[in-house]
Write a structure and sequence with these properties.
The protein is built from 15 helices and eleven strands. The chain is an alpha/beta fold. The strands form four sheets. Strands 2-5-8-1-9 form a five-stranded parallel β-sheet. Strands 3-4 form a two-stranded antiparallel ribbon. Strands 6-7 form a two-stranded antiparallel ribbon. A hairpin with a 6-residue loop joins strand 6 and strand 7. Helix 14 packs across helix 15.
């Protein structure tokens, strides 16, 4: 994809410097991989690369993780701890999900990025470090600034070199390349010899919307590799929610879904992807598919599902399927 080629061309120039980098993009687009690439192309490649998931740590714990603490700094601090900035000295620190940190921690982070020194929690002594900072976020930081949730001065200190990674929906010409990469990866891991995908299976994956981006595509291929026993991945080897999408896609293309129901059907299918309970997700997808095939004729759908209309309505309510207004 041309957007990715532009990024690749910029990387060697960005890597040469010590300038901070802000990588923005949806979850699953490969922000951490890009941060690794910047580090590996830089003069610091033989030095530490330290990752911190800012969104996974509570405020008090995050400050201690970033800057360390001295013994007795707080209850439970039975020994002095070295923080991630100190561990990253002469190397690179990658601050993932930077948009999730509190305003008070943002102040301290700004100071260490500007002055290259910090104080451990509970200490008055300043520690100097030489660290290259790379941050990443899936959030709209400009909106967060407007809402008073993120400091503008920290934002502009981080985005000396901004990089926006496009979603997989914006770079569909890369899907087949990524599929080949993941096939090779899982063939090695599973000691398998899967050659590729059938034409229909490839058509499904080329037209899918990928809310989880590249991470989701990798999981789809792994799922298919587990189920595939032959040399070629077929549609039936793909996850249930992907097959449900394909059924809806084909029905819409053939005009089988009434216009007034198409947007609702798409939204319902997207919700299916995020359901936590796989059994409920599968049941929901099956009901949705039958409803779409019967053009939302509840009597016919109930007959095909071998349920009463009352049971079908109850199941629809339980699974969050909105009744169609015909």
């Amino acid at each position: 994809n041309h957007k990715m080629r532009e990024i690749y061309e910029l990387l060697p120039e960005i890597a040469k410097t010590k300038s901070t980098v802000l990588i923005e993009g949806e979850s699953g687009v490969g922000k951490e991989l890009l941060a690794h690439a910047v580090h590996e192309l830089s003069p610091r490649r033989d030095k530490p690369f330290i990752r911190v998931n800012c969104g996974a740590l509570a405020e008090g714990i995050l400050e201690s993780e970033l800057f360390g603490h001295v013994r007795g700094a707080f209850t439970g601090a039975i020994a002095t701890k070295i923080g991630r900035f100190e561990l990253a000295d002469t190397g690179t620190i990658f601050l993932d999900e930077i948009g999730d940190i509190s305003l008070s921690t943002q102040v301290k982070l700004l100071r260490v990025l500007q002055e290259e020194e910090f104080e451990r929690v509970g200490d008055t002594k300043r520690t100097k470090v030489d660290v290259r900072g790379i941050a990443a976020t899936h959030k709209d930081l400009i909106k967060a600034i407007q809402q008073g949730e993120f400091r503008a001065d920290l934002y502009y200190r981080l985005r000396v070199m901004p990089i926006h990674l496009p979603s997989l929906r914006e770079r569909k010409e890369d899907i087949s390349l990524l599929i080949n990469h993941f096939l090779a990866k899982f063939n090695r891991e599973f000691s398998r010899k899967v050659d590729g995908l059938s034409g229909e299976a490839m058509g499904v994956l080329l037209n899918y919307h990928y809310p989880g981006n590249i991470r989701e595509l990798e999981n789809i291929i792994e799922h298919a590799m587990v189920l595939c026993t032959g040399p070629t991945i077929q549609v039936e080897h793909l996850p249930m929610d992907i097959r449900a999408f394909w059924g809806s896609f084909n029905l819409e293309a053939q005009g089988a879904i009434p216009p007034q129901n198409r947007e609702r059907a798409k939204m319902a299918l997207k919700k299916t992807v995020s359901m936590d309970d796989p059994l409920k997700a599968s049941e929901r997808e099956a009901i949705l598919r039958i409803l779409e095939q019967t053009k939302w004729n509840y009597g016919e759908a109930a007959r095909r599902l071998k349920k009463s209309r009352v049971t079908l309505w109850r199941k629809m309510k339980e699974l969050g399927i909105t009744a169609s207004k015909q």
